[in-house]
Amino acid sequence: MTSVRKLAARDVDTVQAMVRDFGAYLTALGDSWQHNFTAARYLEDGFGPNPAFHGLIAEDEGGPLGYLLLSPSYDVDRGIRIEIVVDLWVNERSRGRGVGKALMKEAAELARTRGARQLLWAVFKPNKLAADFYRGIGGKMVDDLDWMYLPLE
Q1: Which position among 26, 124, 134, 141 has the lowest Cβ density within 10 Å, counted as fewest Cβ atoms?
Q2: What domain count does the chain have?
Q3: Adjacent-strand bridge partners of 5
Q4: CA geometry: angle at 105 spanning 50 and 90, to 5°?
């Protein structure tokens, strides 16, 4: 039976293994992924004095199945708190068993308890598997926005 719980600092090695698997998957799709989300980053940015994210892990008696990371944000236009899903990964052997749905359902509940009224995420365009999954759980495309960024380093 699949269970979902909040991530803890002790999950660092488990999450790091899944992050590397996720990176290999994205690289195979043509992403220029690099492993910058190290164990030190996980611990400092998730469990240090000023956490930038929080998350969930799905498990069963056989071990970890997937993880999801969230980061709080705000939509000024609508005046609502939102939570951004910054990472969602389900091990290949666990796909099709409802693990991703369980993680997203728990993420929605967790976000609601934190006052959020919407989940928001981005999908790497070649990742059709992810886009199909999100559509399947009711996700909507944001047609009138293009995400942009400004490097600060």
Answers
A1: 141
A2: 1
A3: 57
A4: 80
